[in-house]
Amino acid sequence: MNDEYYMKQALVQAQKAFDEEEVPVGAVIVLNNKIIARGYNQVEKLNDCTAHAEIIALTSAFNYLGSKYLMDATLYVTVEPCVMCAGALYWSKIGRIVYGAIDEKNGHRRVTRDVSPFHPKTVIEYGLLQEECSQLMKDFFAMRRK
User: Fold this and answer.
1) Model's pTM, two decimal places?
2) Is 133 part of any known ligand binding site?
3) Which positions are catalytic residues (predicted)?
4) 137 vs 103: CA distance, rounded Å
5) Does residue 125 have an active-site annotation?
6) By the 8 A CB rule, do 117 and 49 touch?
7) Of 99, 104, 107, which Cα lies nearest the Cα of 128?
8) Phi-psi sector, 37: left (phi>0), alpha (psi -120 to 50), beta
């Protein structure tokens, strides 16, 4: 198993969101080469603006581990986390975040600029399967405009 494999699993989650007419963002959390949590956007389904893929995956991981910290875990998410999700990830102390597509409109970098909103020990990587992650978003919004 490698980063690409796990990002493809996050894309499976994003496709679930797409199929349910949610903004197609998916996430998985991996610990010791095992997926311990999955999440996809469920904002419309749950009528909850905080029901982002990352938040759902974090809650699932915390429950699975019985812990509020994820120092040794990696989050794979298809789109750059927003400021809300970045804050939750900060508090989780997650060890690593890998995201696919940059989100110019709603991603954390729009607000945080050159200052990382994540825990100082968190490693950030982006651009993995960026085209696939980005295309799912483009397809979703193109469909919505019809």
Assistant:
1) 0.94
2) no
3) 54 (proton donor)
4) 10
5) no
6) no
7) 99
8) beta
The answer to whether the annotation marks 49 as part of a ligand binding site is no
How much is the pLDDT for 125? 94
Ranges of H-type helices in 1-146? 3-19, 43-46, 53-65, 83-92, 109-112, 130-145
DSSP structure string for 13-41: HHHHHHHTTS---EEEEEETTEEEEEEE-
Of 25, 4, 28, the closest CA to residue 16 belongs to 25
Confidence of residue 67 (pLDDT cuts 50, 70, 90): very high
Determine the pLDDT at residue 104: 78
Which domains does the chain show, CATH number per domain?
3-141 (3.40.140.10)
82 is in an annotated binding site: yes
Given the residues 20, 21, 22, 54, the one annotated as active site: 54
Alpha-carbon span 141 to 119, nearest angstrom: 32
Question: Do the Cβ atoms of 60 and 92 come closer than 8 Å?
Answer: no
**Strand order across the beta sheet in which 34-40 lies:** 34-40, 26-31, 74-79, 96-101, 123-126
